[in-house]
Amino acid sequence: MSRRKLLQSIILPAMLLFSQLSFAQDRVITGRVTDSTGTGVAGVTITARGTQTTTQTNNDGSFRITVPSSIDALIFSSVGFTTLQVPVVSGGPMNVSLSGTTSTLNEVVVIGYGTRMKKDLTGAVTAITAKDFNKGAITTPEQLISGKVAGVQITSNGGAPGSGSTIRIRGGASLNASNDPLIVVDGVPLAPNRNNDGTPSIAGSPDPLSLINPNDIESMNILKDASATAIYGSRASNGVIIITTKKGRSGKPRFNFTTQNSISVLPKEADVLTPGEFRNYVNTHGTPAQIAIMGSANTDWQKEIYDNAFTTDNNLSVSGSYKWLPYRASLGYLNQDGILKTGSLQRTSAAITLSPRLLDDHLKIDLNLKGSLSHSRFADEGAIGTAVRFDPTQPVFSGGKRFGGYFEWLDPSSTTGLRDLAPLNPVGLLEQKEDKSDVQRSIGNIQFDYKLHFLPDLHVNLNLGYDVSKGEGTIYIPDSAASSYLRSPDAKHGGVDNQYKQNKSNTILETYLNYVKDLKSIYSRIDVIAGYSYQDFSTTNYNFPDRTTDGFVISTPSFPFDKPENRLISFYGRLNYSYKGKYLLTGTLRRDGSSRFSEDNRWGMFPSGAFAWRLKEEDFLKNSNTVSDLKLRLGYGETGQQDGIDNYGYIARYSLANQQAQYQFGNRFDSLLRPEGYNPNLKWEQTATYNVGLDYGFFNNRITGSVDFYIKKTTDLLSIIDQPAGTNFTNKILANIGDMENRGVEFTINAQLVRNREVTWDFGFNFTYNKNEITKLTFTNDPTFPGNLTGGIAGGVGSTVQIQSVGYPKNSFYVYQQIYDKSGKPIESLFEDRNRDGVINVDDLYRYKSPDPKAFLGAYSNVTWNKWTAGFSLRANIGNYMYNNRFSNTGVQRNIIDPLGFLANGSRNLLETNFTGNGDQYLLSDYYVENASFLRMDYINVGYNAGSLVSKHTNLRIGANVQNVFTVTKYRGLDPEVPGGIDNNFYPRPRTYSLSLSLDF
Amino acid sequence: MKKVILKASVCFAVVGVAMIQSCTKDLNLSPTNDVTSETVYKNLAGYESVLAKVYGAFALTGNRAPAGDDATKDIKGIDEGFSDFFRLFWKAQELSTDEAVISWGDVGIQDFHNMNWTSNNSFLTGLYYRSMYQITLANEFIRQSADDQLSKRGLSGPDAEKIQEFAREARFLRAFQYWVLMDLFGNPPFATENTAIGGAPPPQIKRADLFNYIESELKAIEPDVPAPHANEYGRVDQGAVWALLARMYLNAEIYTGTARYTDAITYSKKVIDAGYSLISNYSWLMLADNNLNTSSTGEFIFTINYDGLKTQGYGGTTFLVHACVGGSMPASAFGISGGWSGTRTTKNLPELFPGYPDFTTITDTRAQFYTSGQNLEISNITDFTNGLGVTKYRNVKRDGTAGQSQDFSDVDMPLFRLAEMYLIYAEAYLRGGGGDETAAVGYINALRTRAYAGTSGNISTNELTLDFILNERARELYWEGFRRTDLIRFNRFVEGSYLWPWKGGVASGTGVSAVRKLYPLPSRDVNSNTNLVQNPGY
Questions:
Q1: Which residues of A touch B60 (CB under 8 A)?
Q2: How far apart are CA B381 and CA B387, in angstroms?
Q3: Quick one: which of A569, A55, A542 has its CA closest to A324?
């Protein structure tokens, strides 16, 4: 006997003995769970009734659970199967067969500060679990549910690695405050993803959500109506997404390794003049001097900047239980290249969850720790626009050495030698810029839930959480690069050698009491919580000088750092009451205090109430075979918003100007102190939501779904309004003025079309109609006030193409009405004189369509046939319009033969309109506002479950997936889906082909 | 056991209550780098930094020069480069006249020359808010410099006297901006140091009442501001006060219906007699080292000071030296890295000079035109090569070397210079304000002697007519922001009797409605301030 074996022989029995001692009166139950075909079902949760003791089945369906001898029944539950309660009988293994169903009524749904069975929900809540997540190369979590949930519109911000998405739940309730939903990860409400100016809130990260590994996510729960969200009060007007990560399971350690490798390709290039067409055009329309500067090359500039890109995403996880300590640990490594050359994202992530149950299950502890490191290199996205515009007759390389060898437009009379305002070589822009960042982020919390010994109905819950990040980056551009050639004021120093650094910290302390009581005598159950929350958001932005590569300082910051901070303190409570399991009542109340408002306006009260009636439980439906579920939900609630605004907007203060903004008195330059505009009366924006919903299930829940009608009315909109001149140190200020409404319908249906021994075929469809209207914008309703202009476009500095107007959807296009000739061709700068005053001016602009879709749809299907699976997801937007800024900006003669002494390529739209591009009005033609309705196949995939190929306890799955398969649209630009509705140099979404392999062992 | 639990509960309760008590106070947070008024106005240096902003707002567009973001710029809702005082003032005064056209396509910019601007025009809106912003800054400074504030803060003696002098200068700057509003918009809102921040919208003031207010303000500070040349470079002295009064009196009939030509004579004469003199070379007026023109014997009375390194922006003279360069004009001759291909003149301006139309020989050196590759006629306003280039503003020094920066101008912008005072005197004389004919002719000939580098261009007494004065003002002061005011005073702005290419949007020019003599109040402010009544016709 070796020493090791000796050791084992002593320790193992000792450990066993110990466990036997501590659970002296326990017994062990083993068995196997199968489906109707007799195949073992993995991952079935087995709970000893009346306890928190659980385990899960292995891959072959077998299980082993140790329970107190007092336990009389086990509960078997698994997604996709009817939950079964089986009495414990002594002797022999316990073999159980589960019948399949898509009924998710008993699914546990995570809501704010607790969980509910789906059947007990009173609000509009959609839960999506890992098995229903979108497939393919997915870098940010929100893409897992894109198209899957009615009322939730997820539009990716472009094709750059990790660029994240714009998420809108029920249209967005705000105008100038944030329209993003609150995202809660394992009990930690995150800070907003974006700064007020739209940049990512974590410096150096393409999007803060890209620092959360989607592979660690177990479920995403979307709270849509106020009765569900109001418990989150002030941050909940735009819905709440609760992300729950995967947790440990009981039993032996089980490993899973997945690897997914993808190739991304550019689906199509922007339509520009070919070199031949370009030469023709310049020869026809250009002056001799312009013809003379054409080159002899034939360059496809878009081909030069895009390249097929490789992505590898690898994840290893282990989950199991060491005695009383269930654990899960995971490691992930993502390396994603962008299709725009030089851009890339590498992410290494790790997560640990521990969920011990102590003191006879009286104390539950959940510890979640997630950490990630990302390394990004950002491609200069300016190259996208210049590749469209760069003269195709010029070569990539000039043959000379100047400007890194790249061809550039020259002007011998200028100091730098470069032609002012000419586009720069797009390949040079990419290759000569090293914009790199390193970001670390960790999100973690520890949650204690203590069931009082003397009063087990009462739980005390304490949650301590944090979300910290550190972002650092450097930007280096060599002094040979045209983009920053001799850029110092004296034109003697060039290049860029800059850095940035930011630390962020978001900490939370929450505690609540939860009292649950079954009052059997009166057929009632009550569930009450009362809690307190303290959350602090702090950011430290370090400032660095702007330097050229030789160390010359262009500008020095006034302060070494800035540390904006805000805080929220909340008190909240909720009462759930159910009578006979049929009538369900929920009432919530939250009182929030925000440091962003003065003491007089600081506190806001956010109530909600909801009623649900489970009609299925009534006698007239109880025995129906057709109707297997029917529930009516009515809800009303008020929520608030204060994200997306300045931290100190109510305080009178002075700010110091930078060193380029001094003023000369005598022989000295004085620094400037500027009084800042402020609004001491700032307060909460409030949204009242009415919701009527119906959940249904037919034919033993082979068909399920829901319909919801909602009205959201936002009052005291945090909107940026014109301050009466002379009354403040700013002409525009954030104030609580204006009202807005969203009205909509959501419809969801899920069907099991086929379910038999060999084949299952599931189909899901959702439809959302949303109508947005601004109902008030000024103090006094003034019909002559056109509205607030927004939506800056390329082409004329300061030109805008959108407007916020009363009676219209937000961001409506504000354009001239184009007049066409007999052949249907637009006549340049000829517009309808809508007010018949004989002149065409801004008074003839009208509101025409808006970028938000009137309706959007999602459809998805999964088929399994023996060991094969296949699935796809489709998504459609209807009635969304887009301003084609690429057409308007580059598809005109003035762009091609620029009077400034260079040539530029442009959109082939030029050949249709023959617009000269002279004048200032053609840009605002409604001709450029196009219907961008589309149908897109988000992905299609096939998979094969090879089973236990390697050894008995292993399971191998392989899959192939294509993302962004096709898009059907009348829109003539590259992509009909651009957040904001203005299409100009959008980073194209790639088409991605992936192969994946997943091994359980 | 129960005892333990009880103890634990009590602990929980105590800790909980303590936490709630302390935490709700935690909602008072303040910014890291910004400061409050208590700190700012603690001492003279703080006052001076705020005064620097009151002045600097003429030259700069925000707290992060040359341009920052929405938080750092002064005027929101407009491109920062377009929110500069003199750039916008220049557009309103010049693009609407025969002196200038611009090739750009920004929404609303062509409305100036087409004379079809509306109350939504973003340039007019920007100018209006810029002027009102500067007035609000001055109001705050004046409020904070009141005697009670100073004594409250324990400021007395020489420091307090200096602050009081600062406040008088702020009153001048406020008066100047009210003059801008009176001249262009007529009837603006009226905010003073008594208008509370965040309070009720201010009342509207009628043009004539505003005239009286500005006059009274200037008269009130006149005795106490430093004598001409006695203040620091860049700051207000009596010369500036007199010059503004002279300009106002010349136009008083337009503003109030009552002529004040005698006062115009009086005040222009005060300036003329204060030791200023014309610089020797007209082409040195608008150069990178034109601060030399502000010497104690120089020509400049009051300037906006720009600096290529320390006072940067995309407006002011940076706009003036860049926008005029295009076509075959060599950027390096203008001390810049490249032109913006924007501004030219119609043929009406070069027509006023000998040498027209090709300027192969220049006798009047004020004819600073660029003709190579430029067409005199304008068939297309947005084509830079239509219309002659103007080379008056250049970011190079007298010796030809470039300014400090290739991107931002060192050229100071004179708001008042001696030549204007000569012209005011002569015109006011002709309009019956009294004065001395010989002196009037002498002043005009002083300008012409410089222009012709000798007496060959001098005029005789009988050549001194009002028409001559208008043309001479164009020759001397073109592109300095006077033309619209002058044409209105001579009844040639809206009338069909005087035309220029594309006046009113018609190639050959056309008269337009007389309502165009005033710009509309921006609809934005009319909508947010219910006290305002829009100017007639808009």
A1: 657, 661, 663, 672
A2: 8
A3: A55
In angstroms, the separation between the Cα of residue A247 and the nearest Cα of chain B is: 29
Tokens for B421? 């005072």
Backbone angles phi, psi at B411, to 5 degrees: -70, 125
Are residues B174 and B135 in contact, defined by beta-carbon separation less than 8 angstroms?
yes
Chain B residues 243-302 with CB within 8 Å of chain A:
none
Is residue B342 a contact partner of residue B323, using CB atoms and an 8 Å limit? yes
d(CA B340, CA B76): 24
Return mean pLDDT, chain A: 89
Dist. CA B391–CA B389, nearest whole Å: 7
CA distance A567 to A535: 6
A626 inside 8 A of chain B by CB: no
A20's tokens: 């036997």
How would DSSP label each residue in A146-210?
TTTSTTEEEEE--SSTT--EEEEETT-S-SSS--SPEEEETTEEPPPSB-TTSSBSSTT-S-GGG
Rg (CA), chain B: 26
Judge contact between B15 and A557, C-beta under 8 A. no
Q: Using alpha carbons, select from A989, A887, A988 the residue that is nearest to residue A384.
A: A988
Tell me the CA distances in angstroms from A724 to A662, A728, B72, B289, one per residue in order.
28, 8, 20, 40
- Cβ distance A673 to B341 less than 8 Å, yes or no, reads no
Q: Are A407 and A394 in contact (CB under 8 A)?
A: yes
Predicted confidence at residue A102, as pLDDT, reads 42
Q: Which A-chain residues 563-592 have CB contacts (< 8 A) with chain B?
A: 563-567, 569
Contact residues on chain B for A666, CB-CB shorter than 8 A: 232-235
List, as own/partner pairs, every contact residues B338-342 make where C-beta atoms lie below 8 angstroms and the sequence separation is at least 24, other chains included: B338/A411, B338/A414, B338/A418, B338/A419, B338/A420, B338/A421, B339/A420, B340/A421, B341/A421, B341/A899, B341/A900, B341/B103, B341/B384, B342/B102, B342/B103, B342/B104, B342/B384
Task: Place A6 in a pLDDT band, splitting at 50, 70 and 90.
Answer: very low
Per DSSP, the residues of A90-135 read SSS-EEEEPPB----TT-EEEETTEEEEGGG--S-EEEEEGGGSPP
Considering only the beta carbons, identify the residue of A452, A667, A673 that sits closest to B49.
A673
Q: How far apart are CA A532 and CA A514, in angstroms?
A: 12
**Sole residue written with tokens 């009081």:** B164
- Determine how many CB atoms are found less than 10 A away from the CB of residue B63: 22
pLDDT in the model for residue A227 = 81
Mean pLDDT computed over A356-363: 86
Residue A890 · residue A905 · CB < 8 Å: yes
Query: Which has the minimum average pLDDT: A54-58, A185-189, A268-272, A689-693?
Result: A54-58
User: Which residue spans within A338-421 are E strands per DSSP?
Assistant: 344-354, 357-358, 363-377
Contact B234/B281 with Cβ under 8 angstroms?
no
H helix runs in B83-156, sequence order: 85-90, 110-114, 122-144, 147-152
